[in-house]
Amino acid sequence: MHTITLDGVEVEFPKPGDPTTTVHALADLNLQVRDQEFMCLLGPSGCGKSTALNLIAGFTQPTSGSVTVDGATVRRPGPERGVVFQDATIFPWMTVRENVAFGPKVSKGAGGAELKALVDEYIERVGLGAFGDHLPHELSGGMRQRVGLARVLINDPPILLMDEPFGALDAQTRITMQELLLELWEKDRKTVLFVTHDIDEALILSDRVVVMSARPGRIRHTIDVDLPRPRSHELITDPAYVSLRHELFEELRDESHRADQLEGLVGGKAGH
Ligand SMILES: Nc1ncnc2c1ncn2[C@@H]1O[C@H](COP(=O)(O)OP(=O)(O)OP(=O)(O)O)[C@@H](O)[C@H]1O
Ligand SMILES: [Mg+2]
Fold first, then answer.
1. Signal peptide: which range, if any (predicted)?
2. Is ligand 1 within 6 A of the CB of residue 48?
3. Is the bond preceding residue 216 a cis peptide, omega within 30 degrees?
4. Mind listing the pLDDT tens digit for each residue in 130-154?
């Protein structure tokens, strides 16, 4: 069983450039990600999505409240939580194969023919079979993100934390990557928390979508995405999909508007 629980989580940051005041990033955030569930966190820019994910990853600590994974308080990053960011964390001087081998080499001292077979398997899984000897600069953005994914998946973490992993990709590549992720997850279900501000991405991927409010982030709404699996983008014309999409669109529009007001982008001097 691999679950994530956030209970009454508050996060306040010292305001950059003015440490006497604070930014209230998260307020009383309560969240539970179930075993093998695919959950998306959806919300406007600045609402605290990355802050929430970073707490679970163990990169930051809450000001108050508790963050637990499998019942244990999170204090630091750990091997059971794989993290994927918008920019793939890959070493530019290493080939695809060396990049993918890095984790098991360092953490488990793996090597030899066994590691080579494992690396080949994961490179194949993410569709990079022909690119094992390429360097990152010889790859497209989507291919680099595939390397990033393989680097994390090869460690076989039961929990995946993904912060807008496809946010920098063009629309078509993004769809391809979503379908790849779905295919991988169908085969090997992990507990996933996936941050996005893209409604379609959230709906295609998730079992549940949590909409966060504008800062300070808390949960505004949770919807069950009761659509059949396995899924593909053909789903987007399904009436049940269209209706969920409409619901999420309304929720997100309200919160994005509130977020813009907070930042002084509308309704103030800058709002003309
Ligand atoms: N280390 C930090 N120090 C100070 N303020 C921070 C820090 N990290 C985040 N914040 C602030 O906390 C709020 C939430 O930020 P966060 O990055 O979690 O938002 P987000 O929902 O991930 O936004 P986006 O969709 O743009 O990535 C923002 O107002 C941000 O400026
Ligand atoms: Mg973010």
1. none
2. yes
3. yes
4. 999 999 999 999 999 999 999 999 9
